Amino acid sequence: TSEKKKFIPCGSVIMEGKKCGIVTTDTYNDWLVIGYTPVQLFFPEQQNFTLLKLGDNVTFESKDINEIELGDYKTCQS
């Protein structure tokens, strides 16, 4: 990996090795950013502070910027 860390905004979908993650706060790192989600996942002021739990399966769908700006997306919980 690179020594130079870059700004990675909250909501970035990242790859690190064989792992995929979603950044819940703005940070700096050398992760490979492969996408973005407008869905807020982290609520530090609430008792149940995360939208996802360990072991949840996540499916990513491609959306264009117009769909995101219009809020034309939904979150799913099973």
From TrEMBL:
Domain (Carboxyltransferase): give its ranges. Answer: 6-52
Domain of life assignment: Bacteria
Give the UniProt keywords, A-Z: ATP-binding, Hydrolase, Nucleotide-binding, Transferase
Output the Pfam families linked to this UniProt entry. Answer: CT_C_D
A GO molecular-function annotation: ATP binding
Name of the molecule in the record:
Carboxyltransferase domain-containing protein
The organism is Staphylococcus lugdunensis
